[in-house]
Write a structure and sequence with these properties.
Two copies of one chain form a homodimer. Chain A is α+β, with helices and mostly antiparallel strands. Chain A is built from 15 helices and 19 strands. Chain A has four domains: 85 residues, Uridine Diphospho-n-acetylenolpyruvylglucosamine Reductase, domain 2 (2-Layer Sandwich); 119 residues, 2-Layer Sandwich (Uridine Diphospho-n-acetylenolpyruvylglucosamine Reductase, domain 3), CATH 3.30.465.10; 113 residues, 2-Layer Sandwich (Alpha-Beta Plaits); 111 residues, Alpha-Beta Plaits. Chains A and B meet through β9, α7, β11, α10 and α15 of A and β9, α7, β11, α10 and α15 of B. Chains A, B: It comes from Luteimonas cucumeris.
């Protein structure tokens, strides 16, 4: 059944015992992700120690067998699919929080710990780890590290790469390396730490991470601003980001999203050309001022209404429209391509205009929402995958969306990564010399190309 | 006079015209830095365009001639010394600010612009670039990028690596690459941007950078806290860093520094075991609260006195002791090794205790001060280089200081980099596998080893 060399199977089953899985259902369970694609591995390895990870990589490398690291499989880009077969390495058993160092504002973890579990362990210390993807309750820190995950709080606190101090990782050569340190300042040699973050398991398997933490703000308050059009909302985003009170979240929804949230999601919200949800965090003494400053910046040409929620309960009500959106999207369209492009914030109007033009040209429903403070919009192409013509039009619109993003000085992904889904568009994002440099880096870490082959680089 | 191949000289002098310098004084002027070492280049190239930089690298590579990029030569580690001869590439003529994009909170610059000139150009837009090394008026942005420079504001705003969005750079293969983008979120391919930052000209020559900017806070206020001993001050640092009001600066001075600032520098300050200077920034509405919160965190066991400066004039007076320190150090010791180690903040007391033990053991005067919020202390070994015995003891104490730092979970450099000065200690900071990975990265960018040979990696 497995096409793995017998000697490799013998070696790894002896090494891993019940952490070596070859059953059909176990292989299938490790052969899919949130991209709705699938591909079967030949086996699943579930190591308990870094030494086992080293041994797995060395054994697979000796046989040129592909190795695909896997957290919880929430990738939306196919990044964890074993498309070339081989061994999926699951980090389910390496999920410990090793050391909460509150005085040093950092935590040492194994990669398999869930983001949500980590946050709960940190909260009693008054600390949190800033990356907050929508899948936080399900996804692992290792997966967050692999794809440089973000989330709404990124606008103030940074994405995953901004919140990692050090790593231990096993390269494609089967060598355990240690980079970075438990310090917030480091000018010692090459920064391998931030290079490995976002490399989607193609350079090394992370076996331990030292994460940078932030103090939990005691209170939050929200603003909801409705605008006549996207240009007015985008101008407000620039004004908000140009003053010193950085919002804790700054989320955008276009007119189509607002209608969906109301008509399908049941949110209490009037029609508008665009919406901004703005969150401030702080404490009782500063929050009113932060809200006032953010409200002032949100005001300007094209503002239709501005609602303030002074506390968390009122906030929940204001955020209802944003929260109603994702279920509403799921309910109206059986197929959804959730794109994750980024543009400089001043180009948001051009991006949204361009998306609307694409929707007309390809006769598709495309809605846009997302993390406006970072210019990171999720363009959702809604279609019926059983309708061959719609499916073809949706696939045809995608390259045009990427071309538009790049023409605006943006980039292909803000927080989902490249995986399989955008691999073939990398040639448009980077010139041949830059791609060649990335390939040379890949070869430096993984000379035989055994780590997650076929991902990221075209 | 020059040992360069005649055909290379012909090619580069034709390419660069008056940007090709071979006179003895010009070579000498480009053969030193702030490390008090020197080494003569064979020639100095002063390109005006990125195309010229590409041509210089390709020509030198063809002849295996070393290339050393140079900003203003303020490196304190010998990083810009052409110890293997060859061509120094000065970025004096590539010093333009290309595009201030206030709405996108970024600026596009050439590497030769001075940090201080950039700040003055940004101030009218209400923005600043956070890296603020002591040499800001003299040093170039390219130099800041090369060594991942920091400064006192790093504790709140991050160091150079944290404030760069994208780069154009010429690799050792003579290829122009473009990485990153004018966006604050990027999960697209390998992060070459932050890898090149801090690589000290050994991977690529930066020809353009897109820098992340921060809004200028309208007001500042300062606190001066004196403590019985270092342990009390370090505990206060942990308390300050564990709550949500991050100080804009958090500087430390040990007892010896306090005495020097008073007795030699003339500062009005009583004796104490340790001093913290704490700066808050914000606006009129929030600053009093920030000061109150920071003062609360500064209070605790061992606090001797706490002085508040509510405005900039009073702040200047409080900061006088810190500012008097560097001139005082220069006036009392002809020789000074200004080390730049980093430890996790909770290990500051162990570091300072260890430094005092080294001072006793080697019969040397060693004082410690620096950026406590990041655990980045400057251990200054004061000695007379003309006194052979003292000089030898100072050199012998250095490896012990590094060993102490590493044993405390720290790292060799926080903001000065490695250069020549710490190159041979890299084997203690990293295991062979990690150094091998760094060497593989070096080979990927610079296969013939022409870029700044002999620096960073042992």
């Amino acid at each position: 059944m497995s096409s793995l060399p017998a000697s490799l199977v013998d070696e790894l089953s002896a090494l891993l015992g019940d952490g070596w899985l070859t059953g059909a259902s176990e292989r299938a369970a490790h052969g899919n992700d949130n991209s709705r694609r699938s591909a079967l591995p030949d086996a699943v390895a579930v190591p308990s120690t870094r030494e086992q990870v080293v041994a797995i990589v060395r054994a697979c490398r000796a046989h040129r067998v592909p190795i695909v690291a896997r957290g919880a499989g929430t990738s939306s880009t196919g990044a964890v699919l074993p498309t070339a077969g081989g061994v999926v390495v699951s980090f389910d058993r390496m999920n410990r929080i090793l050391d909460i160092r509150a005085g040093d504002r950092c935590v040492v973890v194994e990669p398999g710990v869930l983001n949500g579990d980590l946050q709960r362990a940190l909260a009693p210390h008054g600390l949190f780890w800033p990356p907050d993807p929508a899948s936080a309750e399900l996804c692992t820190v290792g997966g967050n590290l692999a794809c440089n995950a973000g989330g709404p709080h990124t606008v103030k606190y940074g994405a995953t790469r901004d919140n990692v101090l050090g790593l231990s990782a096993v390269t494609g050569s089967g060598e355990l390396i240690r980079c970075g340190s438990a310090t917030t300042k480091d000018a010692t040699g090459y920064d391998l730490t931030h290079l490995i973050v976002g490399s989607e398991g193609t350079l090394a398997l992370i076996v331990e991470a030292t994460l940078k933490l932030a103090p939990l703000p005691p209170q939050r308050a929200s603003l909801r601003a409705l605008y006549l059009d996207v240009a007015s909302a985008a101008a407000a985003v620039s004004r908000i980001m140009a003053q010193p009170v950085t919002p804790a979240m700054l989320e955008f929804m276009d007119a189509a999203c607002i209608r969906l949230a109301r008509d399908v999601g049941g949110a209490d919200i009037p029609d508008a050309g665009a919406l901004l949800m703005i969150e401030a965090d702080g404490d009782a003494a500063t929050l009113p001022h932060a809200v006032a400053v953010l409200a002032h910046a949100a005001r300007g040409a094209g503002l239709l209404s501005l609602d303030t929620a002074p506390d968390e309960i009122a906030s929940e009500k204001l955020w209802a429209a944003r929260k109603a959106l994702s279920p509403a999207l799921r309910s109206i369209a059986p197929g959804k391509i959730n794109e994750d492009v980024v543009v400089p914030v001043t180009r948001i109007p051009d991006l949204v205009d361009g998306i609307q033009a694409l929707a007309r040209e390809f006769d598709l429903r495309i809605v846009a929402f997302g993390h406006a403070g970072n210019g990171n919009l999720h363009a959702n192409i809604l279609f019926d995958p059983d309708d061959t013509s719609q499916d073809a039009r949706a696939q045809a619109a995608l390259p045009r969306l990427f071309a538009l993003t790049l023409a605006l000085g943006g980039t292909l992904s803000g927080e989902h990564g490249i995986g399989l889904a955008k691999r073939d568009f990398m040639v448009h994002a980077f010139d041949p010399a830059t791609l060649a440099a990335m390939r040379a880096v890949k070869a430096a870490f993984d000379p035989d190309g055994v780590l997650n082959p076929g991902k990221v680089l075209p």
